[in-house]
Specification:
Elements lengths: L1 E2 L9 E4 L7 E2 L4 E6 L10 E3 L12 E4 L2 E4 L12 E3 L6 E5 L4 E3 L10 E6 L6 E2 L18
Cofactor: Fe cation
GO molecular function: metal ion binding; phytanoyl-CoA dioxygenase activity
Pfam families: PhyH (PF05721)
Length: about 140
């Protein structure tokens, strides 16, 4: 995903865990986030709760006969637990799939663009049949060892 966080209007991203959206058994989602511009508190940098990846997955987004929805309400998080992850352009962060993270709107006069990629392990892991996003054909490994 190319994330455009434009000056004064770039939207907020509510607290979430990436495994909520990209669920495998066992869990394997890893987020890769590259700052294409400086990410600061005022222009909407990432914020995370340190150690929250150790507390397990709190909810999932699923698709079933009732459509696409979350399987339970969003937990309430204490905003005092979040710490900013300010980054310089070119910095790269790896995000555990259970880490609770968010970002706020861009209140500054400068943009904050980033590139985000989410990967899952398909060797030894199973893509859930009730994930909100499904492929028509199974993925094939890029490399076979």
């Amino acid at each position: 995903m190319y994330i455009f966080k434009q000056p004064g209007i770039g939207g907020e991203v509510v607290p979430h865990q990436d495994n909520t959206f990209l669920y495998t058994e066992p869990l394997s989602c890893t987020g890769l986030w590259l700052a294409l511009e400086d990410a600061t508190i005022t222009n909407g940098c990432l914020w995370a709760i340190p150690g929250s990846h150790k507390n397990g997955l709190k909810r999932r987004m699923i698709r079933d006969e009732n459509g696409t929805h979350f399987d339970r309400p969003s937990p309430l998080y204490d905003q005092k637990e979040f710490v900013p992850l300010e980054m310089k352009s070119g910095d790269f962060v790896v995000i555990h799939g259970d880490l609770v993270h968010q970002s706020f709107e861009n209140l500054s006069p400068v943009s904050r663009h980033a590139l985000s990629l989410h990967v899952v392990d398909m060797e030894g892991c199973k893509w859930s049949k009730d994930n909100w996003i499904q492929r028509k054909t199974a993925p094939e490994p890029l490399y076979v060892s």
